[in-house]
Structures are given as C-alpha cells and as structure tokens.
Design brief:
There is one protein chain. About 70% of the residues lie in helices and about 0% in strands. By secondary structure, the chain is mostly helical. The relative contact order is 0.16. It has one domain. It has ten helices and no strands.
Length: about 350
C-alpha cells in the first residue's frame, strides 16, 4: 500500500476541513443522514457529560477517568458505524487507510507513554506509605526515615518522564491529520470521513489535556475551531474553552502539579514536613495526628485514582489495537480475494 508522496500540509485552524468532504450541495440519502446524525448526537451528549461543573474538577483523576471512558465509547461507535455503512475495505481509499493506520500507531504510543507515567506516579506512592508507616512507629529513628522518605518522594514526583515529553511531536502530527484526504464520489465515504473527524477532535482534545496534566505545560494544548455544521460543535467548543482556560490558569499561577489529586497530596506533605524538623523526640501533637490522617486519606485516594485511570487507558489501548488489527486482517482477506481469480487462471493454464 503506497503512502502519499507529497509532504504533509500544515493544519489551518481557521479553515473547515470538510470543505473538500461535504461541499455545498452534497447529498446524503435519508439512511446515511440518519446514521450520521445518530453518531454526532451521541458524540454531543458525551462531550456535554465531560464539561466540568466546577473549575477544580479539571484534571482531577475522576474527570480524566471519565474522559477516557467516553473516548473509548466513541472509538467503539466508529467501528459500529463502519459496519452499518456496509462499506467494504476494498472500497476504502488508500489514503484513508494510511491515515488511519498512522494515527492508530500514534495513539498507541501516547497510551504507552501515559501508562508509563501512571506507573511512575504509583511507584511514588510506595514512598508515601513508608512515610505513614514510620510516623505510626513514632520513634526518633523512624522520624529520620520519615524525612528521608519525604525527600525521596519529592525528588521522584518532581522528575520528568521523557516518554511523556516525546508525545509533543505526536500531538503535532495528529493535528496535521485533521486535514483529511479528499474523498472520491462516495456518499458512504463522505459519511465515514465526517464521523472520523469527530473522533479525531475528541481524541486530540483528551490527549492534549492529559499531556498538559503530566508535563505541567500548556505549550501543546490544542485549540480547535469546529464548524457549527456539526451537531456536536457547540458542546465541544464549550468544553474546550472551559478546560483549556482552566489549564492555562493553572500553568500561569505557577503550580508545581496540574494533576489535582497529586497537588492535594503534595500540599499535605508540605504541611507535614515542618513537623518532622527539629527535635528527634517522638511526635504526639494533635496537629501532627490530624496531618497524618489527612495525608493517609489523600494518598489512598490518589492510589486508587491512578489505578483506575491506568485501567481505562489500557482498555482504550486495546480498543485502538483491536481496530487496527481488524483493518489489517480485512485488508489481507480482501487482497486474497482479489488475487484468487488471477491465481485460478494461472493454475488452470498450468493444468492445460
């Protein structure tokens, strides 16, 4: 399968990628229009679900878990739409297939990077458990261990993960792919490409927000302009404006961590740390016990949230991987079918 030889053209945020796909006067049958409307209306509902009610929900683990769950549902929906369109792989344009396969690899790379970061953060929780366990022992020797564990935790959590930083150029490439290849005179193809645009926009939004959360940077936060002709445009534009605005506020305020649950734990650690300084005598103050209890609760919440998010990211990884494998499998089958008449004729000539 050949890839386009021309270089990638830049993404134009002020343009409408569908000026080529659904030009004025394009006609879709009532059945195709109904399928497309159903897909877009469902996407709009999902995007509205993701609009936070309060600023402090942005980049919380519970919000991020919901974001991946809804993204997985949309990727499953596009699989169902392809089935309902009854559009055989042999009818797919080579450029569609190239873009899909290329994007799926990039999404798998992002998932691997996110899982790597979630695993790294979970490893930091072991140091917090050491802090809490030594505080429970409450001896002068254990207080020294507490200080050491806190310092190690701060160093571990503050370190950069190069795998996540490597997602920046991947986001750029995904942005470029929004300008979809031209579609031949196929109503089904146009329907599929319009739906795929919605999938790409939701995917880009979620990925860029997550990368910002784990890098503490908003430099690759994407701002997309979605035309009002899409039934989900209003919901998406509201969601993007709310979330991106809050992320930029967090970055400009100089926060050490954009991930809300991690920031909450870090605040508790900062409150606890001064209480471990000075005298090596056992610590018995009410303030200390309250601080220990608060840190223990927040650390448990962070651990469970990280585990749940890692599970959802892994499930999304499997969805993307299975979709890619299914397409490759269909391509192999289609290739065999197309080659079989030729092979039959050659065999027949050999018999003669």
């Amino acid at each position: 399968m050949s890839r386009p030889q021309e270089p990638h053209r830049p993404f134009f945020p002020h343009g409408n990628p569908f000026r080529m796909i659904l030009p004025k006067g394009s006609y879709l049958s009532p059945k195709l229009q109904a399928l497309l409307n159903k897909f877009e209306e469902t996407l709009a509902v999902r995007l509205r679900k993701l609009i936070p009610k309060h600023n402090n929900e942005v980049l919380s683990l519970s919000w991020m878990v919901l974001a991946v769950q809804l993204l997985s549902e949309t990727h499953n929906d596009i699989k169902s739409l392809i089935t309902e369109l009854e559009l055989p792989v042999v009818d797919w344009d080579d450029k569609w297939i190239d873009v899909y396969l290329d994007n799926s690899v990039k999404l798998l790379d992002i998932c691997i990077a996110l899982c790597s970061e979630l695993s790294r953060l979970s490893q930091g929780q072991l140091l917090l458990h050491c802090v809490l366990r030594n505080l429970d022992q409450n001896s002068s020797t254990d207080i020294l261990k507490v200080k050491s564990s806190i310092d190690s935790w701060r160093q571990h959590i503050g370190a950069k993960n190069p795998r996540v930083d490597n997602c920046f150029p991947i986001i750029d490439k995904l942005m470029e792919s929004l300008e979809l290849p031209k579609v031949k005179n196929s109503a089904k193809g146009k329907t599929l490409m319009r739906a795929m645009y919605g999938v790409k926009v939701q995917t880009l939004f979620v990925c860029s927000a997550f990368i910002s959360a784990f890098t503490g940077s908003d430099k690759k936060l994407v701002d997309l302009r979605v035309a009002g002709t899409h039934l989900w445009a209003e919901a998406f534009n509201h969601l993007q404006s709310f979330v991106n605005g809050e992320i930029r506020n967090l970055v400009s305020s100089g926060r050490n961590f954009l991930l809300k649950d991690l920031e909450s734990v870090a605040t508790s650690v900062c409150e606890l740390y001064p209480m471990t300084q000075g005298s090596m005598e056992p610590l018995e103050t009410d303030a200390l016990q309250k601080s220990i209890a608060g840190l223990g609760k927040k650390a448990d919440e962070l651990s469970s949230g990280l585990d749940l998010l890692a599970k959802e990211v892994d499930e999304f990884f499997q969805i993307v991987l299975s979709g890619r494998d299914a397409l490759l499998g269909n391509l192999r089958v289609s290739s065999s079918v197309l080659d079989s008449p030729k092979k039959y004729r050659m065999d027949e000539q050999h018999v003669r």
